[in-house]
Design a protein that fits this description.
By secondary structure, this protein is mainly α. The chain has one domain. It contains 8 helices and no strands. It is rod-shaped.
């Protein structure tokens, strides 16, 4: 049983370390919100710039790029419908970003429990030896006490870094989600604002054309 406890603690630590490293690489800011895409959003001031934005997003594939491509493909829709089309895709991207965090959360819970199991096994062996042989075999008693301490320490040493990583990555995903929502909203609002300005500029020209037509008709 002692070797089983050590094996479970080792396995838990390896799995936890693997997911900490994997999420650290996957949640790099440059990989989720590439600077090139962010700069392209800032440069996209009118519908004429949309092809440039789409090209940059295709060159730098990322969660942010995929959301912007969806928004760019539906600019002929009403603004509310574009927002509705973005929401399911945004949730899908967030689920992908959060992948693996649940494993860290599980490790935070089970690592101390595995340590507790080791502690109980060590105490059972300790009191069993005391009941059978008294305090005469100090080496055997020391072995059980060592199991108690090692199991408890091992569980805590695994759980503490895991909960730190889980809290950090969870907060980072929230920050990334806010940034992606802000960029998408800024892009959509800018395109509709530019469209409204174009329509407003067309109205005086249309009125001027109508007045010129009336004047010509009157002269004729």
């Amino acid at each position: 049983m002692e070797s089983l406890v050590y094996y479970l603690l080792f396995l838990t630590s390896v799995v936890g370390l693997a997911f900490v490293v994997e999420r650290g690489l996957a949640l790099r800011w440059r990989r989720v919100v590439p600077p090139e895409v962010e700069a392209a959003v800032e440069s996209c001031q009118s519908p004429a710039d949309v092809p440039m934005l789409r090209r940059v997003c295709q060159q730098h594939d990322s969660p942010m790029s995929r959301l912007l491509i969806i928004a760019a493909d539906h600019l002929d829709w009403p603004k509310e419908e574009i927002t509705g089309a973005l929401q399911p895709r945004a949730r899908h991207e967030l689920v992908r970003l959060e992948r693996g965090l649940v494993v860290l959360e599980i490790i935070v819970g089970i690592a101390p429990l595995i340590g507790l199991v080791g502690t109980i096994i060590g105490m059972m062996g300790l009191f069993g030896d005391i009941g059978e042989k008294g305090m005469s075999e100090a080496a055997k008693l020391g072995q059980n006490i060592a199991l108690i301490l090692r199991a408890t320490l091992g569980g805590l040493l695994i759980a503490i870094p895991s909960i730190i990583a889980w809290s950090y990555y969870t907060k980072k995903v929230e920050t990334i989600a806010v940034e992606m929502e802000t960029l998408c909203d800024e892009f959509v609002r800018r395109q509709f604002r530019e469209e409204s300005r174009s329509r407003s500029a067309d109205v005086p020209r249309a009125r001027a054309g109508a007045r010129d037509a009336k004047s010509e008709a009157a002269v004729g």
